[in-house]
Design a protein that fits this description.
The complex is a heterodimer of chains A (120) and B (279). Chain A has a single domain, classed as 3 helical TM bundles of succinate and fumarate reductases. Chain A is 85% helix and 0% strand. Chain A has helices spanning 2-29, 31-36, 47-54, 57-85, 89-119. By secondary structure, chain B is an alpha+beta fold. Chain B has eleven helices and seven strands. In chain B, 31% of the residues lie in helices and 13% in strands. In chain B, helix 3 packs parallel to helix 8 (174-185) and helix 8 packs across helix 11. A five-stranded mixed beta sheet of chain B has the order 2-1-5-3-4. Chain B is globular. Chain B folds into two domains: 5-106, Beta-grasp domain (Ubiquitin-like (UB roll)), CATH 3.10.20.30; 109-241, Alpha-helical ferredoxin (Fumarate Reductase Iron-sulfur Protein, Chain B, domain 2, Orthogonal Bundle). The chains are: A mainly alpha (120), B alpha+beta (279). Chains A and B meet through helix 1 and helix 4 of A and helix 11 of B.
C-alpha cells in the first residue's frame, strides 16, 4: 500500500510540475512573448525584481511548493534507479534513509533563502 | 529448385561444471528453405558436435523450451526461420538474465518461482464450490476479452530475458509474473486481488517497471505484458483509493431445470477372487 501511494505521488507531482514549470518559464524567460500579448513583466532576472517578488506571500508559497514538488519527483526517481542497481532489503532501508536526508537537507536550504528574504 | 544456403552458426559454449570461460564455436550448416534455427542446432548436434546442449520439446512454439538469444534478440529457436534473419552468420547464445546449466540451456527456476509467487489460479471465497463445483462460473465474452490475451503465456522466459530491469534488479518480479497477476486479477471469476497485491505492491514488483516495452516486443505469442503491467497499476491505484466499479466475482451458473439421470454402473460380471477358468 505504501509503495502504491509513493508511486501515485510521483504521478501527481509530475503533473503539477508541468503547471509550475510553465509559470516559471513564462515568468523568467518568456517576458518578450508576454509583452507581445500586452502583458508586462519588469525584467524578471534583475535583483530589484527578485527582491520585489520575495516580499510577496504568493510567490513565497509558489517557490516553496515548486521546490517540494521537484525534490519529491526527482528523489523518488533517483531512489528507484539506485534500488534497481543495489537490490536487497538492507540497501533499500539505507538508500531510502539517505534519500530522505538529502531531500530534507535540500528542502531546508532551498526554503531558507526565500523565507529569509520575506521576513527581513 | 530451391538452393541450399550455407549458414555459419556461432554458438556460445559454456559448462559451469568445468570452470572454463564461455567460448564461441563456429559451424557451417546447410540451410534449405523453411529450416528453423532449432533445426540448424539439431543438425549441428547430430552431425558436427554431439556435445552441444539444446533444450526443445514441441517444435511449434507451444512449450517455450527453446528460448534463446538469436542474433542478439530473444527468440524461440523453433519459431525463427533461418531465412527470415537475412544473415549469413547466426549468433546463438543462451537467454540472458538466467543462470546457465550448459551451452544453450538455462535454468528457468527463477521464472517459475516468481510465477508461483503471484498465485496464478482463481481465488474465491466460496471454497466449497471451488473444490467441488456444481456448475461453471458465468462470464460474458466482454469479461473474457479483458484478460484473454494474457492467458496465452507459454512461460518461455523471453520477456524476462528482454527486460532491462530484470537485468540489473534480480528480485524484480518481471513482466511474466506481473502480467499473470493481472490475468487473474482482471478475471471476472476471481476475487484474489487482496491476496496477490502484497506480493506485487513493492519497489521490486509492480513499481519497478519502467515501461520499456521490450517484453511486449519479444513475446512470441503476441502478448502485451507491458500493457498488463500498466493495467495492473491502474487496478492497484483505484483499489487503494476506493475508486472504480466495485464488482463481486461472477456467480455459478444456475442448475439446469431438468437433469439427465446418470448412466447406471454395470454390475460386476466377474467374481472377485474366483479361480481363472481352466484351459
Amino acid at each position: 500500500m505504501r509503495d502504491t501511494y509513493l508511486w501515485l505521488l510521483q504521478l501527481v507531482t509530475g503533473s503539477l510540475i508541468i503547471v509550475f514549470l510553465a509559470v516559471h518559464m513564462v515568468m523568467m524567460h518568456l517576458d518578450n512573448i508576454v509583452g507581445f500579448f500586452g502583458g508586462h513583466i519588469d525584467e524578471p532576472s534583475f535583483w530589484s525584481s527578485m527582491i520585489d517578488r520575495a516580499t510577496k506571500g504568493w510567490w513565497l508559497t509558489f517557490y516553496i511548493s515548486f521546490l517540494a514538488l521537484v525534490l519529491y519527483h526527482a528523489l523518488y526517481g533517483l531512489r528507484g534507479i539506485v534500488l534497481e542497481v543495489t537490490p536487497s532489503g538492507r540497501t533499500e532501508r539505507v538508500v531510502t534513509g539517505m534519500i530522505w536526508a538529502v531531500g530534507l537537507g535540500a528542502f531546508a536550504l532551498g526554503v531558507y533563502a526565500p523565507v529569509h528574504l520575506f521576513t527581513r | 529448385m530451391d538452393t541450399v544456403m550455407q549458414i555459419r552458426f556461432k554458438v556460445q559454449r559454456y559448462n559451469p561444471e568445468n570452470g572454463a570461460a564461455p567460448r564461441m564455436d563456429e559451424f557451417v550448416v546447410p540451410a534449405p528453405r523453411g529450416m528453423t534455427v532449432l533445426d540448424g542446432l539439431f543438425y549441428i548436434r547430430d552431425n558436427l558436435d554431439s556435445t552441444l546442449a539444446v533444450r526443445s520439446s514441441c517444435r511449434m512454439a507451444i512449450c517455450g523450451s527453446c528460448a534463446m538469444l538469436i542474433n542478439n534478440f530473444p527468440h524461440l529457436a523453433c519459431h525463427t526461420q533461418i531465412a527470415e534473419l537475412k544473415a549469413g552468420t547466426i549468433e546463438v547464445r543462451p537467454l540472458p538474465n538466467f543462470p546457465i546449466i550448459k551451452d544453450l540451456v538455462v535454468d528457468l527456476t527463477p521464472l517459475f518461482e516468481k510465477h508461483k509467487a503471484v498465485k496464478p489460479y482463481l481465488i474465491r471465497s466460496d471454497v466449497e464450490e471451488m473444490e467441488d463445483p456444481t456448475a461453471e462460473f458465468l462470464q460474458t465474452p466482454e469479461e473474457l476479452d479483458a484478460y484473454l490475451q494474457f492467458s496465452y503465456c507459454i512461460k518461455c522466459g523471453l520477456c524476462l530475458a528482454a527486460c532491462p530491469t530484470v537485468a540489473t534488479d534480480t528480485p524484480f518480479l518481471g513482466p511474466q509474473a506481473l502480467a499473470q497477476c493481472y490475468r487473474y486479477c482482471g478475471d471476472s471469476r476471481d476475487d484474489g486481488a487482496k491476496e496477490r497485491f502484497p506480493t506485487v505492491d513493492r519497489e521490486h514488483g509492480l513499481w519497478g517497471c519502467h515501461f520499456a516495452g521490450a517484453c511486449s516486443e519479444a513475446c512470441p505469442k503476441g502478448l502485451d505484458p507491458a500493457l498488463a503491467i500498466q493495467l495492473l497499476k491502474r487496478l492497484r491505484v483505484s483499489r487503494a483509493l476506493g475508486l472504480g466499479r466495485k464488482r463481486r466475482p461472477t456467480p455459478v451458473a444456475s442448475p439446469p431445470t431438468t437433469r439427465q439421470p446418470k448412466l447406471p454402473v454395470p454390475e460386476f460380471t466377474v467374481e472377485v477372487g474366483a479361480n481363472p477358468p481352466e484351459k
